Amino acid sequence: GVRGYPTIKWGDPADLQDYQGGRSYDDLKKFADENLKPMCSPKNLDLCDDEKKAEIEKFQSMSDADLNAAIEKEEQKLEDAEEYFKSEVQKLQDRYTALSTEKDEKIEAVKSAGLGLMKAVKAAKPSGSDEL
């Protein structure tokens, strides 16, 4: 999932997260101190609250087929969200293109109606006072 450099990923190796913070030493140190420690997971149940323990136990009790189906269902939700985002951004891009074209046409119409010539005539007119 690396799309740029430097990409920093953190967390459980089975579910790495993108690091979105600053890249200075102080920012990275603060993030590491606050987040890079043992976390609640199936291998560290003692670090989990009751709610997370129950959720982990529910997933552990599922058959492999059911767990795979649940994972696919949730991954499909992520893909659908990404696809929806892309389609909406494309709609915005299309609207932007249409508005830009419309603006250019209006500007061209104003210019062809004589705006430049009007400005030239105004500039060429005597200014009412010939004093230096």
Descriptive keywords:
single chain, 132 residues, mainly alpha, two-stranded antiparallel sheet, 62% helix, Thioredoxin domain-containing protein, coiled coil
Question: What does this entry show, briefly?
Answer:
The chain has 132 residues and is mainly alpha-helical.
Low-pLDDT segments:
none
- DSSP helix count? 4
Helix-residue proportion: 55-70%
Please tell me the overall pLDDT.
Answer: 89
- Radius of gyration over all CA atoms, rounded: 31 Å
Helix and strand content put the structural class at mainly alpha
Order of helices and strands: EEHHHH
Overall shape:
elongated
Strand content: under 5%
Strand order in the largest sheet: 1-2
Distance between the termini: 71 Å
- Largest sheet at a glance? 2 strands, antiparallel
- Secondary structure: number of strands: 2
Coiled coil: 64-109
Keywords: Coiled coil
Protein name: Thioredoxin domain-containing protein
Can you describe this structure?
- With 132 residues, the protein is mostly helical.
- It has a domain at 1-61.
- 62% of the residues lie in helices and 3% in strands.
- Strands 1-2 form a two-stranded antiparallel sheet.
- A hairpin with a 6-residue loop joins strand 1 (9-10) and strand 2 (17-18).
Topology:
Elements: E1 9-10, E2 17-18, H1 25-35, H2 50-61, H3 64-112, H4 115-124
Antiparallel strand pairs: 1-2
